Amino acid sequence: MAQRLPSHRPYVHPTARELRWFAHIDRHGPQSSEFLFELTRDTHRCKDTSLRRLQALRAAGYLCLPPQQRQIAKADFNPYVYDLTPLGWDVLSYEKDLERNARPTGHWWHGYWVSAVSSAIEIEATRAGLEYIPAARILAIRNVGMAIPVGRHKLIPDQLFAIRYPDGYRAFALEVDRGTEPLRSSAARKSLQRSVGQYREALQQKMHHKHYGLKSNLAVFWVFTSFKRRSQFDKLLDGRDKQFMSQNIATQVPNYDGLRWSLNSIVSA
User: Fold this and answer.
1) Which of 29-38, 187-196, 252-261 is predicted most confidently?
2) Each residue of 129-182: pLDDT tens digit?
């Protein structure tokens, strides 16, 4: 349920366009100014105005700059990445139910990559006239969490969403691989091979239907930041893996144009 407005209200009041920004950050996770501009470019075409408003919202206490974004070479040449503050979430909760429990978790840089990929998919799907269905709506079907029980373990997608195409719905589990996990491991730790095996079992036994209450098929979309890792991943698959998709993103830091072209297969699936 939507909440009451906070008692402390700064002199800067978010507009309808800026509440779209807040909702997008709430849904996906931290977003760069580049992605937020693209989100509302259909109604506001001046990038400089967008940047000034983001700075004003930050000064007013609605937005913050996560410090982790500075931990990369030549950080000053990259767009600022913004996240909501408690005040930002309070104001947004007055307008809509929050979705932040479905945002990516864990290591910040991994979560930021996931948030950038899912953000670009939603923006491009919406531009193509398709409906993007976020994880929060899917998980609300049966009031469950993201983790799917698979035997004695749990399978936790990096993100979950669905798209309504002209001929029906299709759900996607998103996995973003930055090459920080082993390809194979004999120990009981996460590896690329183990993840593929868990998804195979989940899909074969239709666990996504049982757990999430989905009626549509589920595709597993892997995004790689290394061509070598994608090639290694493709070698793990066989002819049975019809629901597995992969794409290589050749950029060190998420940028909108790079993701837009690379993720076109999802929008046109």
Assistant:
1) 29-38
2) 999 999 999 999 999 999 999 988 899 999 999 999 999 999 999 999 988 888
Instruction: Please name the amino acid found at residue 242.
Output: K
Which tokens in the block code for residue 25?
């950050």
Tokens standing for residue 119: 């953000």
